Amino acid sequence: MRETEVIADPEGAYYFALEIEGCEIAQFMECSGLKSTTEIFEVQEGGLNDRVHKFPGQSKWENITLRWGVTSNVDMLNWRAAVLQDKFHEDEFWRNGSIVLKGQDGAEVRRYNFKMGWPVSWEGPSFNGGSSDIAIEALELAHHGIDVVGA
After folding, report:
1. pTM (2 decimals)?
2. How many structural domains comprise the chain?
């Protein structure tokens, strides 16, 4: 690092949006599952009892889970309905998208682009007449990988 570079302050994890095919369709309360893991393939070498060699095996991505306050917009529900109606062959089924983290000023900080996403599950809100909580829905997306891009 050069002496003139300023270390940036970390951004908050509370202002983000979902884009599908380049169009922002929703802002969410919570997003989880931006994670990849690689299996470890272990090889025990004969004659060397003090170590086990570890090599990378198969890698996989976690599903992305989004939670949001219920509104009149049903785009996410319609996408899930396509799965329930076995519309896997249609162009609109598999979608590329992004989880976009924004700074306090609304400017893009980082983008998590997912490929060929589709809704695995949907969960509706829990209702309680004695509560003043917001009604929350959740959607879980399977995908074929994430590319992380800085602004």
Report:
1. 0.79
2. 1
